[in-house]
Structures
1.
Amino acid sequence: MLWCFPAVTGFLLAVTFPKADQGFLAWIAFVPLIAFVYKSRSPARAFWGGFIAGAVQLFFLQIWIPSVLAQYGNLSGVLAWLAYGLMLILLSLFPAAACFAAKVLIRRGGDFCLISFPFIWIAMEYAQDFFPFGGYPWLLAGYSQSKYLRLIQIADLVGVFGVSFLILFFNVALFWIGIYRKRGWASAWPLISAAVLIALSLLYGTISFSRWDSIQPNFRAAMLQGNISFNDPEGAMIEKIKSGYAQMADSLKFPNPDLLVIPESPSPVSFEYDSVYRQSFERLASGFSMGLVFNNIREEQAEGNARYFNSAYFLGRDGSLEDVYDKMHLVPFGEYIPMKTIFSFSRIISKDVSAFSPGSNYRIVKVGDHPANAVICFEIIFPDLVRRFVKKGSQLILNLTNDGWYGDSSAPFQHLSIARWRAIENRRYLLRAANSGISAIIEPTGRIQTSTGILMQAVCEGRFAFVSQQTFYTRYGNVFVFLCVIIAFGFFIFNGFRRVV
């Protein structure tokens, strides 16, 4: 019966994310897992409890991955599910490791070491920024609270990890009061501490919301959601790209928006080599005072070898090319093959794996007279990557993405939910142009000013501003995470030393 507890945690965590979006359940979701770790006879059993919780959550929330691999990666159904299984195993190791470490401490140092669990969990969440294959921090606990804007304003101090910590600490406090309910204040102090932290977060959120919500957005933007599909015939794709966007621009509600943004999308034509395509976009850019930002594949010749980049192009109001940003964080097995000596078989299995090269520059580009930056597709899920652009001076974040891969699943909603945090952490307007939706204008408070639906051709129009102030998180990054790591190590050092003595 006890083995059901981790599965309950995994299921509850799954329904805290979009589309179910029942974020309030996160505040009790970890209690069954904590109970399992506490009652487990060994760290090994605790490890498997954490693994089960992670696997159940990931299974329900990422169930769209096999169909993506089969449809766009040219994998058979069996291979797609095997690849998905490998991903579940790798990502479930993080909660498993957290539970293992917590149990080791509890056995060495007693019940008080339950308090180490939130610190260890945050360290494991942060590790997902880097592993596997460059990182996949998609399902961090804090993201479950995306719609509770007053609470999550603390992200400009502690990032999404700070909200994850609040959730974990509150769950530990609930379990603590259950096992020590007859000991008066001994059982109440963790819950009181958690309540104080949450109250302070809400107070800070109310003050911050008033401050950042007072910014007047003086500029107008339009994002053209073309809904171009890989399944479209090549001729239809070319027609949509060369003339379809111009036709959509003619239908804008605003007579003269300042900035036009076109998302990442399938493109069989090259801006560099197709003169008709290039001239059509140059003409399109000339209708906007701050020009046009769009996505295309860039080719670079070096010593007789061609290198390809997934890039964001910035055209000025006169149609001239102002600058190009090359995507730095590529999608493993989609845009490149990681660890080629080990995974070279993936090229044989799927001919559709692209061989892109990563960019190497956090490029800041002038949009009008203001510094801005672009991030492409799932780069938006990496807090530190986006933060570095803003720290270099960017006053506006542009996110060009193609979520058409995911179809009518929860993934586009989850992707948008994550993007909101980058706006709050750095207090920037975020213009999100998505080929198949959801396109949106996100304000510095994380509020969605306007948005579109999915799997449709649409135009997203709204207002934005350039913001120059830098937050604590922008300037100093994940200081809170490093503090959690230090405290977690402190638990191990203290309890290891005490056991020796």
Note: The domain at 219-466 is CATH 3.60.110.10 (Nitrilase/N-carbamoyl-D-aminoacid amidohydrolase).
2.
Amino acid sequence: MTVASLGYVGLSMQDPSAWNEYGNNILGLMTAADSSAERVLLRMDDHPYRLFVEHGDEDKLISTGWEFADSGAFEAVIANMQAAGVDVHRGDAEGAALRCVTEYAVTVDPSGNPVEVYYGRTNLQDDFVSPLGVDSFVTGDMGMGHVVIPAPNQDQTHEFYKTAMGFGDSDELILPPPAEGAPEMRILFMHAANQRHHSLGLFNFPSPTGIVHMIFEVPDIDTVGACLDRANAADVPMMASLGRHENDNALSFYMFGPGGIGVEYGCEGKLIDYKNYQATKSTLGDIWGHDYAPPVTE
């Protein structure tokens, strides 16, 4: 195991300001002081940002930033990728400064998803204050949260994250086909070197935005409920009703953020002993709730 956590996520948006408003007024994130109209930086803890939104021609995922503990782990993952024939490129000093990291490298996984690896987050700050009074988000050593990404080449992509990146398996969830004649839905959940049940999910269906969803985890159900009220009052389109997952126990709801980006907002995610965890197999997605439509596959 080498990968430590999900450090940041990057989006391309035709209108980045929409995420500034949504992040502040619905999620309770704080806009970083060095944000601009072309590059919105959103904070949820002491990191300089956890989510960046850049102006672009499409609304889509452009970055998943995976943190490694130190330079040794960082060099090891690059060596692993090179040994596996993965085309990986080291970033320059300017790019590192933009990301607020010591060093980084970029590549794509076997399903074409963008991947960034780094170590040494810089410019940490202790002045996070949610504009909505959200006390905190569940981050720290467990990182930003988790992302679920499309992986049509699922087995090859799973091998990449496990062998080259150092993820461990958490759960294999298999659900019935979303429509007659369609394949069954399979999500492979993977954990990093922290207590979060999963930091990464690989879904065997495509997604038009390049991301199925990302989570913002908070400490309690009252904070989740308050966000649900705000989202409903603002007519934010819903992706799934309030419910509790079976495999990681998370109590959450799903909505569509600007640009059709899937967002989960929840609490009470399961904590695991990642060094000794035994992966599970599931056929039940939810204990209750989470009434939602499957993602668009065209």
Note: The two ends are 35 Å apart (CA to CA).
